[in-house]
Structure formats: C-alpha cells, structure tokens
Amino acid sequence: MSDTSSSRMLADRLTQKTLDRLNGKGIPAAVSIIELRPLAANIAQAIVSGFPDPDLQAAIDRLAAADAVIATTPIYKAGISGLFKAFMDILDNDLLIAVPVVLAATGGSARHALVIDDQLRPLFAFMRTLTTPTSLFAAPEDWGDSALTTRIERAATELAAMVTTGIRAAITDDAWGKYQHTFAGNARPATAAPEVAFDTDLMRLATGGTLAARA
Questions:
Q1: Nearest-CA neighbor of 116 among 94, 96, 97, 134?
Q2: What pLDDT, on the 0 to 100 scale, is given for residue 52?
Q3: The pTM is what?
Q4: Which residue range forms the structural domain that includes residue 81?
Q5: Which of 22, 32, 176, 182 counts the most CB atoms within 10 A of its CB?
Q6: Do the domain assignments include residue 205?
Q7: Percent over 90 (pLDDT), the chain
Q8: Is residue 72 in some structural domain?
Q9: Taking a C-beta distance cutoff of 8 angstroms, is the pair 137, 107 a contact?
Q10: What does the pLDDT average to over 65-73?
Q11: Does residue 187 or residue 191 have the better pLDDT?
Q12: Which is it for strands 79-80 and 69-76: parallel, antiparallel or unpaired?
C-alpha cells in the first residue's frame, strides 16, 4: 500500500529467486507485476457495478495468462488487506484453476504469521490453485535474518519445480470440462470448447428478451 512497501520488497526477492531457478533450468521467464494500489478506485467500482473497467480488466487478463503467481499482501489487524480481498472477490472463480501460487505476507508483528494459513490458504484453495508447501511471512525483525533468505530460496525452488512440470496444463487439459465453471466466465484455457453463442433465440429468451415470430 505504500511506496516502497515491504510486501513489494518480499515479492521482488522471491520473484528474482524464482527467475534464477527457472533460468538455471533453461526456461526463459518474464515477470508481470500487478500493483493494486493504483487500481483501488477501479476495484471499488467493479465491486459495486459487477463490471471491471478496461484498466482493471487488463490486470485480470495478465493474471489469467500467468503460468504461476506470487501473491503478497500486508497484514492489518490480524487480517489480509481489504484491497487484496476485494480484488480476489471480482475474479472469475475459474481464473486460477491449477495455477502454482506462493503465498506471502508482511506484518508489523510476528503474531500475524498464521494469517497466511488462516485466511490466504483457504482463499486460494477456493480458487482451486496449487499453493506451494512453503509460504512466506516477514515481520520487521525478519529482514536481517538469514532464515528469511532460506525460506525464500525454498519457496522459489518449489514454485519453479511446479512450473517446470507443466502441472497446470496437465490438469486443465484433461479435466477442464469436469469443473463447475462460472457461466460466461473469461477464464478458459486455449484448449477449451468455443465460446457460447449468446446471440441466439434461446439465449435471448434466457436473459429476459423476446422471441420475434418468423414466417
């Protein structure tokens, strides 16, 4: 939420370690950063209207295209950022199916460390992601501790390994049709069936339209 935030610094360190692991395996990788602070008003409007504007939709599209996600949030009053949760609330339920994810958070006290397992992990389980065994939490005293570096390296190794196996495609290619998808969702893989044709008599009737008689 601030510039520069501790959450962003933690994400950057983990991102670089993951890139190092992927590059070491001969896998080129690029990073796309989604900062929610500049999108706060867009997210609030989407919560009310149900429709993201072009800037917010562009961020959602980048998230949908990702092969892996590093999700980082500050912890306030024993809970994740409200802006982070609001962004998750507007996502299609199918957007992150089988995507490898590292969960990370920062807080002003080590007492907040369990928020990752108490709130973030169930949230991403609902989104049907594949979270790494290692999550990351950093309190102020952790930044100078070598143990944080060790945890970052471990999480990066796990994320890179999951990306390398192509686990997302292996799951969605064979099982996509077995999920209960959100109607008209925008989270379909390239191998999915063609989009539903909404401009038909049946679909117009289903959405409250009228059917004109034809001779």
A1: 134
A2: 94
A3: 0.82
A4: 6-182
A5: 22
A6: no
A7: 71
A8: yes
A9: yes
A10: 96
A11: 187
A12: antiparallel
